[in-house]
Amino acid sequence: MLEVLLADPQKLLCDTLQRQFRNETGITISGTVSNTRDLFTSLEGDQHDIVLYNPALQERDPFTVLATIRDCYPQVRILLIEDKMAAYQAARMIKAGAHGYFTKTDGVSELLNALRLIGQGNMVIPARVQEELFYVGEHIPGKLHNRLSRREFEVLYQMTSGKTNKEISAILGISVKTVSTHRMRILRKLGCANNIELIRYVLRHKLVN
């Protein structure tokens, strides 16, 4: 029996999936959480095989959440679930520790199939994400963002969400000065003179939603 922990802030989705999974053979929803604090409390105290994880969960940076699960609970596999995620963003999250990506626009039968594949030790990665995953970390002409470190992309991800340096500092657990340093490095690596040029670059290359 696959025990699936559903980590999503949308109560309606959690309730719907619990009802639809109720009669499924071999898969059960072993718990639901709506924030990262409860996510780690549940991982610490209960048995789960897979975390169905929405990066929109508040309180902690999703890249840090993924890396922590990977390092502290290596037996637990992670399937990302979100309405729509930029392919490059999904690729970065898979690099950080996720084992697959699934959109909420797909059907329940496809989700069940994805969970079974993940439970069998497979990766579930859409073709558009596979291509980006191949190039993460490579220096490709015209794709300067591939040169960003994991931490730099985490800062970029928070910047494009409208977070201030102080807010990013609290989310990532680093100093405001370190955030400022990463911000300058990001601008330099992407060849941007200011935040307006940075946002244009992000939108042009579809790095985040």
Topology:
Blueprint: E1 2-7, H1 11-21, E2 27-33, H2 36-45, E3 50-53, H3 62-72, E4 77-82, H4 87-96, E5 100-103, H5 108-119, H6 127-135, H7 150-159, H8 165-172, H9 176-190, H10 195-205
Parallel strand pairs: 1-2, 1-3, 3-4, 4-5
Number of strands: 5
The coarse overall form would be globular
CATH superfamily of the largest domain: Response regulator
Task: Calculate the terminal CA-CA distance, rounded to whole Å.
Answer: 35 Å
Average pLDDT score: 87
Properties at a glance:
10 helices, Arc Repressor Mutant, subunit A, five-stranded parallel sheet, Rossmann fold, alpha/beta, 2 domains
Structure explained in plain terms:
The chain has 209 residues and is α/β, with parallel strands linked by helices. The protein folds into 2 domains: 2-134, Rossmann fold; 144-205, Winged helix-like DNA-binding domain superfamily/Winged helix DNA-binding domain (Arc Repressor Mutant, subunit A, Orthogonal Bundle), CATH 1.10.10.10. The chain is 51% helix and 13% strand. The chain is built from 10 helices and 5 strands; from the N terminus they run βαβαβαβαβαααααα. β3, α3 and β4 form a beta-alpha-beta unit. α7 (150-159) crosses α9 (176-190) and α8 (165-172) packs across α9 (176-190). The mean pLDDT is 87.
Task: Give a short synopsis of this structure.
The protein is of the alpha/beta class and 209 residues long. It is built from ten helices and five strands; from the N terminus they run βαβαβαβαβαααααα.
